[in-house]
Amino acid sequence: MSTTHQGYLLIADITGYTMYLNRSELEHAHQVLQRLLELLIEHTRPPLVISRLAGDAVISYGLQDNFLTGQTFVELLEDTYVAFRRMIDLMVLNTTCQCNACANINTLDLKFFVHYGSFRLQKLDAHSELLGSDVIVIHRLLKNSVAEQTGIRAYTLYSDSAFYKLGIDGLSSQMTAHREAYEHIGEVIVWVQDMHPVWQAKKEAVRVTIPPDQKLLGLEILLPLTPIQAWEVITDPAYRAILTGSERQEKVNRQTGRMAPGSAYRCYHGDGSVSMQTIVDWVPFEALTTEDSTPIPKTTMLMNIRLEPAEGGTKLAMSCSKSRGPYLGRQIANLVGRVLLSRHLRKGADELLERVRSDLAAGKFDRPDPFQPGEGHIHAEVEAGLEANRQPG
Description:
This protein is an alpha+beta fold. The chain is built from twelve helices and 15 strands. It has helices at 17-22, 26-43, 70-94, 100-103, 133-141, 146-150, 160-165, 196-204, 227-235, 237-244, 327-361, 375-389, and strands at 4-15, 49-53, 57-63, 109-124, 127-131, 155-159, 176-182, 186-194, 215-223, 248-252, 264-268, 274-283, 287-293, 300-310, 313-321. Strands 1, 2, 3, 4, 5, 6, 7 and 8 form an eight-stranded mixed beta sheet that branches. Helix 2 runs antiparallel to helix 3 (70-94), helix 2 packs across helix 12 and helix 10 packs across helix 11 (327-361). The N and C termini lie far apart (47 Å).
């Protein structure tokens, strides 16, 4: 008998699939859709686990225990959407083929559907089939009136239960409340995030880096975590306090409900002093840069943390810039920083690594065995999707 689980259900669904096929030559359409499906699979990362493919969609789930924080989950979907749009743009830019499939690539888009509830897992071959009434709910949500009533074509749709369980109600100003009614289910309240502004903002974003001639010091450690888990560590006040050597930290100045450039970490120290780490660049799963106040009045320095996938986990590379501010203050801060800050950060990095290992041993960072569809499986699903979505004429 299968066990009933509590958790999150996610469907990533390619938009415009049926119309695209009706206008396209099947051979090139297959190539395009297979590449897009492979991208969605690549971005469905632990703690999400792929249940199965469904032609033009990837269906996955995440168990409640040790799941992502709400903002990280939202950013994971945003990151996937940006990668999808970037691939569409690259396909359009790089193709010289004039067939309908290649000419209509830019008509494809992406939607996400997220629901929280209970479900059972039934093992079928290499994957787990999702069963239960909440699984029916999320599949019913695929048929909705969002586009007709709001004009939003590419979106993430959160059911009310997922919205509040993730704790992203502070982001409601960025979303549109909507209602759907289904036979045998009744009314379902949902929250819709338009993904096109996300893509536009990412395209226009200017990254903040520390030029080599402004770098004061740096260090690296290998965290035995996935990049998503490592991102949660470097953005969590409890772990950041260990890394930077403060007694505790708290998040302040959220921007439209989330941590972003302009937000800050307020740091409390044992001597009663308080310092600020103000976010100047926030690139989920890749980099976080803050401008940090120093003990020298009116001086600050940039701290950049970069994450890179590596064998055995994720490499965390930290860099600190030379100080900013009045000349004399900069000189003092740089002199102190080269000696004391370097020792201070090394100690913090070692303690952070020890804490992460301890939490891993205690089961805090769950790393479920993923189902990774092989190329033959993906090929077969695309073929099935092509056949199911073709319409005569």
